[in-house]
Design brief:
- The chain contains three helices and no strands.
- By secondary structure, it is mainly alpha-helical.
- The chain has a domain of 71 residues.
- Helix 2 packs antiparallel against helix 3.
- The protein is rod-shaped, with a radius of gyration of 33 Å.
- It starts with a helix and ends with a helix.
- The relative contact order is 0.11.
């Protein structure tokens, strides 16, 4: 029963549409990957000059420099995550395209086997009828 359900589901999939869309999906993922790779790398933050004497209170400028450095590090981490995500999407799209190609080949082979099997059954039936008529 489960095999019949799977065959029914697979026969209702518009394979032509899926196969036609696979190259566009792979191409789009490739463009996303290239865009993520080409993001500009930020310059490392410049450390503010440390005062030569004692430990005076931190000025607003030093706090801003520190905060900017933290934000640049955060942006860099997010950029790296984006690149990793884009790579995963590209790999998934490539795998999807390959899977669709293999499924299409399998579908064609099954169709060929069904046609060949039907032709063999018809030939066997014709031979059986011919023998039966000749003997009868």
């Amino acid at each position: 029963m489960a095999a019949g359900t799977v065959i029914t589901v697979l026969s209702n999939i518009p394979w032509g549409t899926v196969i036609d869309a696979a190259p566009r999906i792979a191409e789009g993922a490739g463009r996303l990957w290239e865009a993520a790779r080409n993001l500009r790398r930020p310059k490392p933050p410049e450390a503010p000059d440390a005062p030569a004497t004692g430990d005076p209170p931190i000025s607003d400028t030093e706090r801003l420099h520190s905060r900017v450095g933290e934000l640049e590090a955060t942006v860099q981490a997010m950029r790296e995550q984006l690149q990793a995500s884009a790579q995963v999407v590209k790999e998934l799209a490539d795998q999807n395209a390959l899977l669709v190609q293999r499924i299409d080949v399998a579908r064609r082979r099954i169709l060929l086997m069904a046609v060949a099997g039907t032709a063999c059954l018809l030939a066997l039936g014709a031979v059986t009828v011919g023998v039966w008529l000749r003997l009868g």
